[in-house]
Amino acid sequence: MAASILHRITGDGLAIVGALGLVWWLVAAASGPEYYDYFLGWAGSPIGYFIMIGLSWAFFQHLFSGLRHFVLDTGAGYELTGNRKWSLIVFALAILATAALWLWIFAGKL
Question: If DSSP codes are grouped into helix, strand and coil, which group holds residue 40?
């Protein structure tokens, strides 16, 4: 049940926060170099990285949870122990994928 609720929360978070970030980026790009530099200052700040890491975690959590729901829609995985195990695996995979992505991003900046 918690995995399903988290799936909905991450989907809403991606839609709301991701859309606001995309719109801010597009407005900054259309407003000229001064405002775009201001946007990049925010995006490159610790708060910006925190938001981007959170969005990437939400993306991977939503992706892997959606794949889990797809398997459930086929009629497989409804056993309680298997369902609980796959819920935990989805959560762990999302954390690992997020860590791998950001390690790759930060490794390119060294």
Answer: helix
pLDDT in tens, 66-76: 999 898 888 88
Closest CA to 55 of 108, 89, 101, 110: 101
CB atoms inside a 10 Å sphere around CB 10? 22
Residue 18: give the domain boundaries.
2-108
DSSP string for residues in 41-108: HHHTSHHHHHHHHHHHHHHHHHHHHHHHHHHHHTT---SHHHHHHHHHHHHHHHHHHHHHHHHHHHHH
Tally of domains within the chain: 1
**pLDDT score of 110 more than 70:** no
Residue 54 has pLDDT above 90, yes or no: yes
pTM as predicted: 0.87
CATH code of 51's domain: 1.20.1300.10
